[in-house]
Design brief:
single chain; about 350 residues; 4-stranded parallel sheet; alpha+beta; about 20% helix
Length: about 350
């Protein structure tokens, strides 16, 4: 869900272009969203900062006509699925959350053991066996493990990659600092390559990218949206060289199409990094596991939930548990220090009072 500033900028732009002072210059605009889900991401923000960045805090909101969708299209019309749909609504509104902000994980979600190995076995059974197309496409397109933190996502991806059959391919990035021509007193660069390679960012691929032929990947940039190469598109690695990779898409309208992905320069200007970092690397990440934020908007047949690290913002728990198309295909693990299947559920109640 976008920051309100983006909508307000489009509104002002259309008014100027069309010389029409009506909302969006008189153009009909359709928005889609769910305020039970994750709000705009504002780095290092407090709860009021995140809430105020949402569209419903903009003057535009009060000029919109609100239409509601009341049927959950992901679940089927049987009693258990309807009960699951109602449970999703309840957790989305924070009704089943106790005084400590915890919510009980349903018994059907629990793995045989509260371990990573058990979760991987549930979501990726026989992952060590060879997979062949189109079986691999169908296998990976409908399943993923979701985690709240990028560090856990990377760790799980590499754990599953070790189990995946095939020879390991490691691609190293070329990292540099934009406009960095300064040296220290010894004539060495202020930021050595080893330090730059150690930096991880949510918008950048890893400096040391480990892959195997046949593994699932996710694009991190919009390369060619008309051909399905969008940020978040998933595919399977089919061939690989030092300068280009071949990937077969497994999601979206272009599923089954094969495309070449080049190494490109990506620049990160996140506040965590005290300089603009330029990384030349393939714009992909492993997609065995993905972050909850990245999974927003996707439907999956089999969903694994890694709650060892609790969610940390509004709507993350709701998004995670609502990605599945059936209550019977959701499995979860929780913090090892908890004797009961519980995890955090953060809900900003003021967000849900918009109607």
């Amino acid at each position: 869900m976008l920051n309100r500033n983006a909508f307000e900028a489009v509104d002002r732009c259309l008014r100027d272009i069309r010389r029409d002072n009506r909302l969006f210059g008189g153009v009909t605009i359709v928005f889609g969203g769910d305020y039970q889900q994750i709000l705009p991401v504002v780095p290092r923000a407090t709860q009021p900062d995140i809430v105020s960045a949402s569209l419903f805090c903009s003057p535009i909101w009060w000029q919109l006509r609100l239409l509601k969708l009341v049927r959950n299209m992901r679940v089927q019309d049987d009693p258990e699925e309807m009960q699951f749909a109602q449970w999703l609504v309840d957790v989305g509104h924070g009704r089943l959350t106790d005084a400590d902000g915890n919510v009980d994980i349903p018994p059907d979600f629990c793995c045989q053991e509260n371990t990573v190995e058990s979760l991987i076995d549930e979501i990726y059974p026989n992952i060590g066996a060879p997979l062949h197309p189109p079986h691999a496409d169908q296998f990976f397109s409908g399943r993923a493990i979701l985690s709240a933190r990028n560090a856990d996502v990377n760790s799980l991806n590499h754990t599953i990659l070790d189990l995946f059959p095939g020879d390991l391919i490691e691609v190293h990035s070329a990292d540099s600092v934009m406009h960095d021509s300064q040296n220290n007193q010894d004539g060495e660069l202020l930021y050595p390559a080893e330090y730059l390679n150690s930096i991880t960012s949510s918008g950048l691929p890893l400096a040391h990218l480990k892959l195997k032929i046949g593994c699932p990947l996710m694009l991190l940039r919009n390369l060619d949206p008309q051909r399905g190469l969008c940020n978040g598109s998933r595919g399977i690695l089919t061939r690989m060289t030092d300068r280009v990779m071949e990937m077969r898409l497994i999601s979206g309208a272009h599923a089954g199409e094969t495309h070449f992905i080049p190494r490109i320069k990506l620049i990160s200007e996140e506040a965590d990094i005290p300089f603009p970092l330029c990384r030349q690397q393939f714009p992909v990440r492993l997609a065995f596991c993905m972050s909850i934020n990245k999974a927003q908007g996707q439907s999956l047949g089999h969903v694994g939930l890694d709650f060892r690290s609790a969610v940390f913002t509004h709507g993350q728990f709701y998004v995670a548990v609502s990605r599945a198309t059936s209550v019977h295909r959701v499995k979860a693990i929780w913090g090892p220090n908890s004797s009961e299947p519980k995890t955090k559920n953060i809900v900003y109640q003021e967000v849900l009072q918009i109607d």
